[in-house]
Design goal:
two-stranded antiparallel ribbon, globular, 40% helix, four-stranded parallel sheet, 141 residues, Rossmann fold, 5 helices, single chain, alpha/beta
Length: 141
C-alpha cells in the first residue's frame, strides 16, 4: 500500500478562466502528477475532473467541486501545493492548502524535495499519450 497525496493547483479559478486556460492548467497538473507517481505516490488529482466538467459546467456549482476536494484532502496522507508564482493563482488550491494545514498534513510545494515512497520501482519516462513509452523497471537488490 502506497501513500496518497492530494495535488492542489489552478484549474478554473472559481470558473473565472476560459476553457483554453483551464486545459493548460490541467496539462500542467498532469505533468506534476506524473512526477509524483514516479516517486511512488498514489495521486488524487482533482484536475482530472476537468473532463466531466466540460459536460456538466451548468449543472455542478464550483462550491460542490470544492466540497468534494475537501473530502479528498481529508483522506490523503500528504498534500502537494502547486505554487501560484509558478503555476498561476487558484482560489480553490488556496482553500485546500488551509485545510491541509488545519489537518496537519505533510505539505510539499517542490517536486525536488518530496520523498520517494517506493524505491523498488522506477518509472522512467513521460507519458504514452504524449507519444513516449512508459517503462517500469524493477530494481534488483
Amino acid at each position: 500500500m502506497g501513500k496518497v497525496i492530494y495535488l492542489a493547483g489552478p484549474i478554473g479559478n472559481g470558473h473565472t478562466v476560459d476553457p483554453r486556460k483551464m486545459y493548460q492548467n490541467v496539462r500542467q497538473a498532469e505533468e506534476v502528477m506524473l512526477k509524483l507517481m514516479n516517486k511512488g505516490w498514489s495521486v488524487i488529482c482533482p484536475h482530472l475532473s476537468y473532463y466531466p466538467y466540460l459536460h456538466w459546467a451548468d449543472h455542478v456549482h464550483w462550491q460542490r467541486w470544492l466540497d468534494m476536494d475537501a473530502d479528498f484532502v481529508r483522506k490523503a496522507d500528504a498534500f502537494f501545493y502547486m505554487k501560484p508564482e509558478v503555476y498561476g493563482p487558484s482560489k480553490g488550491a488556496a482553500q485546500e492548502l488551509e485545510w491541509a494545514k488545519e489537518q496537519n498534513k505533510e505539505i510539499y510545494d517542490d517536486i525536488n524535495t518530496i520523498p520517494s515512497i517506493d524505491p523498488q520501482l522506477i518509472i522512467d519516462s513521460v507519458c504514452k499519450s504524449c507519444g513516449e513509452n512508459v517503462t517500469e523497471t524493477p530494481i534488483s537488490g
